Amino acid sequence: STMASRLVPKVISKQGGSPCKEKHVALLSPVGKIEISGCEAGVHEIKLPKMSVLPSGAESSVACEVCEGAEELPEPLQQCTAWLRAYFCEPATTGSLPVPAFHHPLLQRDSFTRQVLWTLLNDVKFGEAISYKQLADLAGNSRAARAVGGAMRSNPIPILIPCHRVIRSSGDTGNYGGGHLLKEWLLSHEKLQKEKL
Question: CA 67, 117, 193, 133 torsion: positive or negative?
Answer without folding.
Answer: negative
